[in-house]
């Protein structure tokens, strides 16, 4: 159950688009369409923003979108806003019915 | 309003036990799977354990298997985590979460309860 691999940090200017990658294996990301993404602001609990690779929960901005190719999932934030600053984590269902989180990515808005 | 309120955290010596609880309200508890997720302050998230609505499937991370036991009481809308043989590396903020299925480690989260394992 090794953590999924995410870049430590990603940054962009307001209005730009950024993409966060989430690398796994065929036993997790590549084997299931069960990737979810979480946003966490300092001192707050994580918030689900994408589930099952591409779906957004009710109330989540359509500026967030998810995708997957092979063993790598991606989260794209378009029209970057100051409120998007924070930490982002991917998660994948994996073999043996467990879940594994990514290492986390700090998003900065320049 | 969905509410998940954790309790039971504290300072405990290595090798000792601790029981965490989570009181759920604002939704039909037995419609949801439940999980525990932990986070060392300033570090990343780690999924700990989860179970289906009827406890028919219970799963654990390798790091806690054999030491932690998750359980739920649907009549009381509560979730528990019995932690034994605690280690310093179990020190973390423990979140209770709910989800529509085990493949999502949480669509709603509590605020967490802090567990510190130290002599």
Topology:
The complex is a heterodimer of chains A (110) and B (119).
Chain A: E1 9-12, E2 18-23, E3 35-40, E4 47-50, E5 64-69, E6 72-77, E7 86-93, E8 99-101, E9 105-109
Parallel strand pairs in A: 1-9
Antiparallel strand pairs in A: 2-6, 3-4, 3-7, 5-6, 7-8, 7-9
Chain B: E1 3-7, E2 10-12, E3 18-25, E4 33-39, E5 45-51, E6 58-60, E7 68-73, E8 78-83, E9 92-99, E10 108-109, E11 113-117
Parallel strand pairs in B: 2-11
Antiparallel strand pairs in B: 1-3, 3-8, 4-5, 4-9, 5-6, 7-8, 9-10, 9-11
Describe the structure.
The complex is a heterodimer of chains A (110) and B (119). Chain A is mainly beta. Chain A contains no helices and 9 strands. Chain A has strands at residues 9-12, 18-23, 35-40, 47-50, 64-69, 72-77, 86-93, 99-101, 105-109. In chain A, strands 1, 3, 4, 7, 8 and 9 form a 6-stranded mixed sheet that branches. Chain A has a 3-stranded antiparallel sheet with strand order 2-6-5, with no helix packed on it. Helix content of chain B is 0%, strand content 50%. Chain B is mostly beta strands. Chain B has strands at 3-7, 10-12, 18-25, 33-39, 45-51, 58-60, 68-73, 78-83, 92-99, 108-109, 113-117. In chain B, strand 9 and strand 10 (108-109) form a beta hairpin. Chain B has no helices and 11 strands. In chain B, strands 2, 4, 5, 6, 9, 10 and 11 form a 7-stranded mixed sheet that branches. A 4-stranded antiparallel sheet of chain B has the order 1-3-8-7, with no helix packed on it. Chains A and B meet through strand 3, strand 7 and strand 8 of A and strand 5 and strand 10 of B.
